[in-house]
Amino acid sequence: MGLFLNGKKASLLYKDETESTYFVDKSALLDELIPLVLTREQRENIPVEEEKCMGKSNKYLCITRPRRFGKSVAANMIAAYFGKGRDCRPVFDHLTVSTRSWYLAHLNQHNVIFISFNSIPEGCTSYRQYINRISRRILRDLIQAYPAAGIDENDAVWDALNDILESEEEDVKFIFVLDEWDFIFHRDFVTGQDKEEYVDFLSNLLKDQPYVEFAYMTGILPIAKYSSGSELNMFYEYTIASEERFSQYFGFTEEEVDTLFARYQARTPNQNITREGLRTWYDGYHIKGGGRVYNPRSVVAALTNNNLGNYWTSAGPYDEIFYYVRHGAEDLRETLGLMISGIPVQANIQEYAAVSMTLHNQDEILSAMVVYGFLSCENGCVSIPNKELMNKFSEMLRKEPSLGYIHQLARESEKMLQATLENDTAAMLKILEFAHNTEVPLLTYNNETDLTAVVNLVYLSARDFYRIEREDKAGTGYVDFIFYPEVNRNNDGIILELKVNHTADEALQQIKDKKYALKFEGKLGERPLYIGRILGVGIAYNKETKKHTCKIEILRNAQKPL
């Protein structure tokens, strides 16, 4: 056992993870990897119900996902299951993988070299210090484990591994689990030449080497960006947008969040979180094949803290959003306006090109945002996935003057909510006219969809206090907008209906006729979920006069505070 060869670290970290309150069992991921270590005879003896997992596949796998999407947890699990460093049966006996016919035959029976590339030497100021530490410690582990191989401490790691293979009577193979392979690319001291040397290091270590049983690598950045030649072309890459395989193992599925929420309800006496709140805040990442996943870090943090908040966007260097927007503001202005308005934008997403901080082309900038998890991609369009990210973009729009009229609209949105709550329709009309008459009109106002987009913008700041739903089923129809006061449920609720070439009175009458206000009531015999006033708001636009009209009516007065 050593630091990198069959070490305890990964298994101890995974054990801690399985003991956490909101642990999700993703051990079925091993179904995808076990064919890589089974002999032909072992595969032939697999029960019929497990045959779907038994296809022999390429032994070089790279999983890329945004930060905090479970990559390291999965890497620790793989190393803990296969590695010889520690008896992990007490950990895995209660997980899904324990039901497999091959479970015990391969539990802690393989040599695993586990490298977490986000660990650097103390006071590290150069790539050479960084990579020398890794090479030196691997060699130390190999010399200790295979003293008869004649390894010299100055050998290259791949030479030492081949020496072991030649010196042992039986073939000695190693599973490589390489976590956060691209970490070094985010260090200020790493040069372009260093990056090339690093890719060569990985290529020499892994490519066409007979001692590799399989290699499992994780990161944020797809490897094709840095392997322009053939250095790492043996890897199959699995990204969130381009490959369906492995999708269910990174991020939480709808069913998994249901289970976690039930766990939360059972253990939390004074619950501040709703199931719908989790969906609004953290869902929205589209995966290949049509599914969706939640941001796992944020879901766990919210349930643990009994509070919906910006947990993911506050846990990393998310100034990349500001950087990209600031350097591509002219191209991105209308694109961001559309996305903030809830309208997906067509984009040519090229994930391999998404790392450089010198990108200026709009498609490349949007690609970078997809790779980092700021945007979701589906059917060739990008969108802001959820409220947590919408809050970040809203903050950026209000702080970034280079976005011109979109920035001005975002700032005006701070006044729009207040005007609505105070029934100041004159102020509301002034803001709507400003939105419509901006120097570079965002939309053409040909229909209610265009009007909806502008309303989204002018109520941007309302998202700080409300959960805003569009086309929500309410009463006997579908209302254009409902503003649920999630921060303080004693605040006013808002029902907003839009009309083009109709009047604000007609919009307001529809709200009343279709009983949209019932959405704010609780179940029969229970107290209402929201007890502030309910405001009905009608907004209309006349295409001939090019004028807006607004009307507000109190549909229910405030009730006794909770």
In words, what does this structure look like?
This protein has helices at 9-18, 30-33, 40-44, 71-82, 89-92, 103-106, 127-145, 157-167, 192-206, 254-267, 275-282, 296-305, 320-327, 329-340, 362-371, 387-399, 405-421, 425-436, 448-458, 504-513, and strands spanning 60-64, 111-116, 174-179, 212-219, 236-238, 285-286, 292-293, 345-346, 376-378, 381-383, 466-474, 477-485, 493-500, 534-542, 547-556. It is of the alpha/beta class. It folds into 3 domains: 9-238, P-loop containing nucleotide triphosphate hydrolases (Rossmann fold); 250-403, no CATH class; 404-562, no CATH class. A hairpin with a 5-residue loop joins strand 6 (285-286) and strand 7 (292-293). The strands form 4 sheets. A 5-stranded parallel sheet has the order 2-3-4-1-5, with helices on one face.
